[in-house]
Amino acid sequence: MGTVGGGTVSVLARNAHEIARRAGRGIRISHAAAREYLPDLPGLDRVGRISDDAFAVVNDPEVDIVVELIGGYSPARELVLQAIANGKHVVTANKALIALHGNEIFAAAQAQGVTVAFEAAVAGGIPIIKAVREGLAANRIQWIAGIINGTGNFILSEMRDKGRAFAEVLAEAQALGYAEADPTFDVEGIDAAHKLTILAAIAFGIPLRFEQVYTEGIARIEARDVAYAEALGYRIKHLGITRRSGEGVELRVHPTLIPERRLIANVDGVMNAVLVQADAVGPTLYYGAGAGAEPTASAVVADLVDVTRALTADPGNRVPHLAFQPGELADLPILPMEAVETACYLRLQVQDRPGVVARIAGILAEAGISIEAIQQKEPHEDGAEVTLVLLTHQVREGLMNTALAEMEALDAVTAPIVRIRVEGLGG
User: Fold this and answer.
1) Which three-class secondary structure state does DSSP give residue 96?
2) Superfamily designation of domain 3-126+293-328
3) From the candidates 88, 95, 195, 237, which is the catalytic residue?
4) How far apart are CA 234 and CA 223, in angstroms?
5) What is the pTM of this model?
6) Angle, CA 235 vertex, CA 234 and CA 236 arms, to 5°
7) Where are the domains of the chain?
8) Which residues contact 108 (CB under 8 A, 6 or more apart)?
């Protein structure tokens, strides 16, 4: 009963009557496991009993549905598999568990005829799983792009609005409780990759493939990149993107320039947003709180209501875990990042002397890379170096990697080149 667990207790207690009207029967917390909890937690009086043994909960014969809000890989995996083996339904908010072990967990649940619900695992309180899995069931989904980590979005928003450095804003995010003491999962994109893995599976009917997600963080983004992007009419967001093409499925998390006129470009602070492009409905955008006690509890309780409604349903007629019937999952290839095509923003630090820009343009031309825009910024203090900012048209990643290596080998290029991918995200 930490942040999300405490929120779930409070929401279940406060809205018990409304929830029962929707579910068709009351939902009661008969047994909870928690090592620590707030003694004045609203709704605590509605909890039947509290112990510190989570396995006692999953083995309790009176429990119909187990809610796992521990997080992490272990003992969450063991608890969930034990609950399934005991014939209990499971509700979880654990994106890491589903992304890494979901294939095993869903197979076990299918064999036992029970449900594993995980709405709260992606984008907190935004009902994006239900929207993609059920609301868009008529569509062939083409791509999804999402701001699915609030910490990274808060950092980039502060850098843009106030011109602050990454390290300074990260320290504030930690002080505010948005980022953990070890912020790696947030700022390096691992948390977003967990969520993207789940979204791709339910969008395209593929197995969960977290190990194949290309993941890049935001630690190399500087305040000047944010300002230069703004001047070009773009904003930098840390996106999870999955797209289906004739060659396979793209799975990637990285900083991305997107046109400032797009609605998703204007999602700021710790808020989340997911943009889905589908063939029949076109683009749809889902926006809201991606974390927090009660927003995430909203999704947990919605899953509880869904599972409660389906308790007496024939297992074969329930909504499939990954949207598509288990025997209909397609083993589509995941494209290596080298095969993905995007436009690019490049920032180079070069010596201020004749012919340098021409040589850089020549390398790009030889690789078949077309330049959309090029800007030379003010000289550095010593006057010997300048910053170049380039926007390219779409190019295959492998070609760009080769061109970047050639440019960085030039004596006139005095620092590693910063490359940020560009997505139009047009409907």
Assistant:
1) helix
2) NAD(P)-binding Rossmann-like Domain (3.40.50.720)
3) 195
4) 14
5) 0.95
6) 125
7) 3-126+293-328, 128-289, 337-422
8) 81, 84, 85
Q: Which H or E element spans position 101? A: helix 95-112
Amino acid type, 356: V
Residue corresponding to tokens 């990454």? 166
Given CATH 3.30.360.10, say whether it is the number of domain 128-289.
Answer: yes
pLDDT digits (tens, 9 = 90+) for 321-336: 887 888 888 889 999 9
Residues 6 or more apart whose Cβ sits within 8 Å of residue 135: none
130 is catalytic: no
DSSP string of 269-300, one letter each residue: TTEEEEEEEETTTEEEEEEEE-SSHHHHHHHH
CA quadruple 187, 389, 273, 209: dihedral sign: negative
The 10s digit of each residue's pLDDT in 360-384 is 999 999 999 999 999 998 887 777 8
279-297 pLDDT tens trace? 999 999 999 999 899 999 9
CA distance 80 to 93: 12
